[in-house]
């Protein structure tokens, strides 16, 4: 009896360990116990599943501005459900990448973006939002700029912002339409001016991108060139740092920065890289009054080896004392000022 009991006990332990009576692994366990498996949560509704016909219909209706079944608030602004808008939208931080729509979450962040006139496609607000001065101002600014306001539930806002703290308020930023590198030289030709382009090599902070676009607008630059990979993108942070200059200065993307610089050289542009070991100072560039590309590297590593080799000349920003490398936005602003000064003197 004891031997039979022991055998049954042993087989029971084998079954609990993921094996059958014959000692073979039990199929479907993957070598893990059921307590270690994590569920995926409840299945979302059809209109929130990417690729589902119901989701595509809802997204198409939202793109057409279909307001059927929508109510209106006291100010006459349309308030619709966010169900069809949420699917496929990913929340991003200030260092987001890619061209998918960006979502700014939180009352302060949304208000700052609206004050900076960041182009947006929708303002999402919770149905039981505790209204304070920030919310009132955000709603008023959205109404002034024609941004539709969409009522969204807590669960929808959580999905829209990827679980970040949204405080019942989120703003979807319109994807930026990047120019082609050739568009920048064509823009200069249309103005009858020698091209002045700023190329960024390894600059990953969108705020630097926005600051450089602002300097380019101030000193008659014709555009900013960025590589398609490992570079800052035009996000809400870049828009705010540019103070609206990104609406006037185009940003172009190049699949390969070195090849894009080579194409500019074939068109007759002189490529100058900013480097602490440069042969001349930026104030002494004799080529400043001609077609020019200024290449700015990252604050820590500077220009990459291949980009530095592609440059026709390396120039430095003279400093009174030894110091750490300048911020990319500051360095670009100084160099653009010197180029503008020399061009004005030679005019």
Question: Could you describe the 3D structure shown?
Answer:
The chain is globular. A hairpin with a 5-residue loop joins β1 and β2. It contains twelve helices and 13 strands. The strands form two sheets. Strands 9-8-7-12-10-13-11 form a seven-stranded parallel β-sheet, sandwiched between helices. Strands 1-2-5-4-6-3 form a six-stranded mixed β-sheet. The chain is of the alpha/beta class. Residues 1-16 and 66-98 have low confidence and may be disordered.
Oligomer state of the chains in this structure: single chain
- End-to-end Cα distance: 109 Å
Shape: globular
Mean model confidence by pLDDT: 78
Report the portion of residues in β strands: 15-25%
Strand order of the largest sheet: 9-8-7-12-10-13-11
Sheet bearing the most strands, described?
A: 7 strands, parallel
> Percentage of helical residues?
25-40%
Number of strands: 13
User: SS-based structural class?
Assistant: alpha/beta
H/E element sequence: HHEEHEHEHEHEHEHEHEHEEEHEH
Helical element count?
12
For the CA atoms, what is the radius of gyration? 28 Å
Low-confidence segments, ≥5 residues, pLDDT <50?
Answer: 1-16, 66-98
